């Protein structure tokens, strides 16, 4: 078993028409044993930016604390919030910094950029970015999430349709993965 599968997770981010959604399962486990059924995997950085962290739960919490610290320093220096593209580069740099003893996390970033254009991306544990125009997935349920999202995604969905699509994709995927589950958290953000 890989260390990335130790706690289990399912994360997905999807874009719509001037909106985005990010969703995760709620299970925290130690291999096949469930520890908690309402574990937070999606974190709000600011009003228009969220990050989901799959992988080893302790590393995810540590990485989140470092990201909040760095974002607050940016806010003090620049007197504005980070754009999603800038934040993705920051996350990538922090992960690459630790490449010889990496955080065992796979982040999913979703936000609204300039002119309320949705931005989503994911990366591996050493910060190699994967940008997408439709959806990104991460976690132990990623294989089934890819299939569900491929079959359900349509371009230019409004917020309500996006919520229904991402929710159904998440729920149908975690049913096929014994390391994730117990429902989900879904965040939909419009302009």
From TrEMBL:
It comes from the Eukaryota. CDD domains: proteasome_beta_type_3 (cd03759). Keywords: Cytoplasm, Nucleus, Proteasome. InterPro entries: Ntn_hydrolases_N (IPR029055), Proteasome_beta_3 (IPR033811), Proteasome_bsu_CS (IPR016050), Proteasome_sua/b (IPR001353), Proteasome_suB-type (IPR023333). The keyword Cytoplasm applies. It holds the Pfam family Proteasome. The keyword Signal does not apply. It is found in: Cytoplasm; Nucleus. One of its GO terms (cellular component) is proteasome core complex, beta-subunit complex. Non-catalytic component of the proteasome, a multicatalytic proteinase complex which is characterized by its ability to cleave peptides with Arg, Phe, Tyr, Leu, and Glu adjacent to the leaving group at neutral or slightly basic pH. The proteasome has an ATP-dependent proteolytic activity. Component of the proteasome, a multicatalytic proteinase complex which is characterized by its ability to cleave peptides with Arg, Phe, Tyr, Leu, and Glu adjacent to the leaving group at neutral or slightly basic pH. The proteasome has an ATP-dependent proteolytic activity. Component of the proteasome complex. This is Proteasome subunit beta. It comes from Olea europaea subsp. europaea.
């Amino acid at each position: 078993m890989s260390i990335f599968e130790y706690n289990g997770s399912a994360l997905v981010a999807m874009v719509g028409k001037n909106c985005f959604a990010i969703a995760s399962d709620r299970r925290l486990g130690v291999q096949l044993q469930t520890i908690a059924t309402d574990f937070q995997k999606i974190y709000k950085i600011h009003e228009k930016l969220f990050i989901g962290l799959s992988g080893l739960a302790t590393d995810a919490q540590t990485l989140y604390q470092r990201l909040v610290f760095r974002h607050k320093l940016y806010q003090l220096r620049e007197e504005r919030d980070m754009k999603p593209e800038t934040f993705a580069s920051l996350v990538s740099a922090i992960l690459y910094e630790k490449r010889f003893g990496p955080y065992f996390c796979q982040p999913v970033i979703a936000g609204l950029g300039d002119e309320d254009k949705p931005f989503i991306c994911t990366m591996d544990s050493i910060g190699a970015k994967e940008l997408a125009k439709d959806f990104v997935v991460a976690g132990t349920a990623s294989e089934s999430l890819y299939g569900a999202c491929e079959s359900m995604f349509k371009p230019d969905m409004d917020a309500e349709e996006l919520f229904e699509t991402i929710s159904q994709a998440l729920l149908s995927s975690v049913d096929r993965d014994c390391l994730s589950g117990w429902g989900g958290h879904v965040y939909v953000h419009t302009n």
